[in-house]
Fold these 4 entries.
Entry 1:
Amino acid sequence: MLTKSSKYAVRAISYLVVNSSENQKILVKDISNDLQLPKPFLSKILQRLSAKDYISSSKGRGGGFYVTEDQLDHSILDIIIEVEGKDRLKRCALDFDNCDEAHPCVIHHMIASEKGGLWKAYKEIKLKDLKS
């Protein structure tokens, strides 16, 4: 259900949560190499998340990406919605625009509770939980 962008974002942020700090910034090329993700695509994702203050970055010698203590309170769902531009977990699994409770698609009622459970789990998982 998640796009490649969201998966890359969550993987990269998980990496940053575990490996970075304000004193230990990580270059996008190192994240890309360690996680085997395409550097240009990952760079765009991380820049977008940094611009929206989900992660931090600094330029120049000793620069890179990192996560501050305050940013650890964001949820995985916050990251997914930022990267997707919308809440894909609330969209129809078959991508019908008019699918809802009043006009359900053929599988709407079969997966609604599972989608709701996944949405709730992503909302409850905070970045700080990824440190464990």
Entry 2:
Amino acid sequence: MNTLRRRQFSAALAGSLALPQLALAADTALPVPASLPAAAGIAALKKEPLVLLVSLPGCPFCELVRRNYLLPAQRDGSLQAWQLNITDRTTPLIGFDGKATTAAAQIAAWKAGFTPTVLFLGPAGQDLAERLVGLASIDFYGAYLDERLAQARKAVAALS
């Protein structure tokens, strides 16, 4: 086995051993909005985008995004983030159209069925920045998140 293949195999093996342990850890949840317009209103008062994590219970990548990026930013006050569970078909949610829906139905309407996905939305539910889909590179995820937030914040400022 050549050196490159050995490194790829070792990385894959290490990842497969670590991810189940992370998945066993209790999910670190973000708040779940009861109303998207109300959550967007809170964000708008702070001149911020509505940041939503589309999550799946037990998803180790969702947990990494929450634990390593969104929760620390929320704790230091630089970001207010919410989450929606892609499988939640029972908890009522008020959509941007004012009608009752569920997280699962809203996520399907947004065509945001891959987890984790971070959405950056305006007061009317419009996309303010490109969605951050998946977790392709832990090394660069923070930079990708910062870039999208800067773009969304600039769009929020332009709306004012």
Entry 3:
Amino acid sequence: MKIVIIDGQGGRMGSLLTEKLKKARIPDAEIFALGTNSLATSAMLKAGADYGATGENPVVVACRDADVIAGPLGILAADSLLGEVTPTMAVAVGQSPAPKILLPVNKCNHIVVGVQTYSLNELTDRAVEQIVNLVS
């Protein structure tokens, strides 16, 4: 089971997801931490990710055969996360056949209407719950 977590900036969301997924003890799950920058990758690796890589090409390659992709909503939008998500990354995520667990963070001019505002802790709890349901 290949779970790909994509995050940028400081990697806080990705590291919380990683930590909580590890605690969920999903059998045969491997967590691939893909950062749009080295700080984000490092944070996710410190949180317990099995593998880590940084930049555009690792995102493109990992999305091809991912079983689940998780991260902020912005991973689907070119130039989001303060410009860290390239158009190629957004296309790779969008075209992947893997289910996407997207956390709706209303920042960077991406506002999801009708979505309640949750803390990052609450969002990651809900995301982990969805991932566990998907792979069970």
Entry 4:
Amino acid sequence: MASKKKTRSSKARQGEVTATPRKSPYSPSAIREFILEVQAEFKKIVWPNRKVTAGLTGFVIVLVVILSFYLGSVDLLLGKLVSSILK
């Protein structure tokens, strides 16, 4: 039986890296493609309406005020405690 001889002429040899030309990410066509992709993604965003945005903003402001009073009072209490211990 005759054995088939493998040819490597059409395939890359093992250990060799085939050089594929890469497009520069800074080329005008790549920049344009990036901008088009960003625009497509922005069209997928669902923005909340004005009422929901105002409600959530108010909630965040109230929460920040409450937490700042709490942390301020804890800081004041611990500061007085430490200063009384050090005296």
